[in-house]
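Many introductory courses stop at the sequence. We go one step further.
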Amino acid sequence: MLNRKKKTIVAILLAVYSLILIWMILLKGSVHTLQVLFLSEFRSINFLPAFNARETLLNFLAFVPLGLYLGMLRMRSNDPYAWLKPLLIVLLCSLFLEISQYILALGTADITDLISNTLGGFAGLVSYHVLRKAFGGNANRIIIIFATIATALLLTFVVARDIWPEALELGRRIVD
């Protein structure tokens, strides 16, 4: 069970992660959000699963943290069905994002994404359970430290990805 301070940290990490996830899925990871919103409309729904290994793996991995965070916030060790509510939350979050892509005409609402996202969240829940069994009371602390580092690295990557090319261009102009 998490104490109040750890719950607050996990809630903050979950909020930052959620914002990054929304930004990556709905705004396609662009710093230029208005450009994404005013692109020509692309609205599609794909009800037939289509396997694209790279995209499926990325969707799966993107939702593992959601499962970990929800596991930390919602799992009770004495309830054998405690994973059902967090898994339902993962499914509903994924469904919300897929429907939002369709409504906002920002891409394809895809059943394959829904499945891989949900499986990724489930993998996060299973990982949390395994870590709890392996490390006991230290599991939450270990996950919080790892999640904090991973979130900081992800934010650094996200910012650097858009800033670094500009810095390289500036460096080339100075040398020339």
